[in-house]
Amino acid sequence: MAIYKRGYERYQGPLTSHWTRVLVLPRFAWRRLFQQRLVLILMIASLIWPLLCGLFIYLSNRLDLLQSLPGDIKNMLAINGKFFLIFMNVQSVFSVLLAALAGPGLIAPDLANNALPLYFSRPLTRVDYVAARMAALVGLLSLVTWLPGVLLFWMQSGMAGWGWLTHNWYLGTGVFFGFAAWILVVSLVALASSAYVKWRIVAGGLVLGFFFILTGVAEMLNAILRVNWGSLLNPTRSMYIIWSAMLGQELPPGPGVWECVSVLAVLIVLLGMILERKLRAVEVIS
Amino acid sequence: MTSSEVIFTDVSKFYGEVLGVNKVTLHIPSGITSLVGPNGSGKTTLMNLMTGLIRPGRGSISVLGISPSEPEKLMRVTGYATQFDSSPRWATGMEFVTTGLTLYGYSQSDARDRAWQALDQVGLTEAAERKVAGYSKGMRQRVRLAQAIAHDPKVLVLDEPLNGLDPLVRADTISLFRRYAAEGRHVILSSHVLQEVDLISDQVILISNGMIVAEGEIRGVRDEISEHPSQFIIRCRDASRIASLLFCEDHVTEIKMNDDRLGLLVLTRNREEFSRALTRIALAGHTIDSVIPSDESVDALYEYLIGGGRS
User: Fold this and answer.
1) Which of chain A's residues have a Cβ under 8 Å away from the Cβ of B47?
2) ipTM
3) What pTM was estimated for this model as a whole?
């Protein structure tokens, strides 16, 4: 046995906080995402609709012509819950496309390259890892969902005045929390697909398939069985019903708000379970 | 409990029905320790257990007094380089090591300084700003080693760290391990190149089918294998005469003479007696140039304790 001198001393200097460390991962992910031309193009395309909505808000508050239109037409062009519901619907499609494009690259390559031990042999838990990956998607999707939505809300409030704001404050909270719930669902679907399938392209297809195929399946069920609860299988429809309630709009025929909330909660738990099962430092193939 | 050792106490790990390791009890002191065993014997499982990547189903583990249930503390004292080529191809070597350090909590400037030092230690500074995608296999192996040592760990765990390295870099890497060991740190590595394990290890752990077959210094382990006689090569002028004298000893089981008649291979069941017999022969005026144990190596231990099917 060799005799060793104990000359080793560890680093005793300051360290960054836990969350600063966790945010290192999304910072790198964002940099990589914005280097992808397709993501950039889709991002720009998804901001066209908010710009048009902003223009519409400006015109509806500034043009005397619109103010002088007859009641019915004026109501149709009013900035109200319906306006924000349409806005949210359009942006939700873009958010799914963005998630399908950006989400699979977040986890699938780490799994394919056996890189998880690299992360987990550092002071980073599995929850931290998922939170970091989700933060990358949340940041990206926020840019096309609640951020422009809330901006539009404040723009309208600023132009229409205090009276409009006091009567319609729930539209602002509805846009924010409605989109927050949507981002949670979309991000989890993207991450779970990315963790389930190691190939990026297939994982992207899985994200799109999840939303579009489930929509078709739900409609088929409704048509074949002549029921309307089939819509519960369609997360997009369930979210639309929740948004309608949040924005004070008449609920479309079909399942109620709480049924939709319950189904989405179950979906979130299931997606969380997939991530828990797939994201292990060591993969065992028995 | 000693806080300067890596201690496994009755540790078992099963992956469902697949055996990882079973009832492992180990005390690993500082220095270079090599894990030796065939593929699927449980070497990587042991490494994953001591770095806290997986938890044992049974038993307890302590790394310098830290339990894997305190990952935040554990991962600051351990550095791990897996056998997988998992460095991101899009990053430069510098970015890869720096990012790892920021995950440990170093500031960006500290991380860059330390990353540079680590890359310097593995001889990769010239390629530091090149993308990992353009690295050779050996360079990727070295950048993995750099990310494992960059935060100055006290316990360095390396899965097949010498694979893919050319002889020159291999020698540099081994001297890096020796330097670490000389500072009182643990360097725990697995290798299939038994000659190298022999050369660099202070102690070995032989593992087969998830069970520890032997652990300790190579000489000590060899001494305890009584069913295989010890082998010695004797170089001498009067080989036939010395052979006849050794044949009179009870403990000598076999003697083979070299073709040049200047050397003998002697098999003995008692090393102490053999040593005394050689002293007597030398004192009687016979010239013995050298006596070299020929099976005090990891290679021999592997052969005796684990047998064929070496990977």
Assistant:
1) none
2) 0.75
3) 0.79
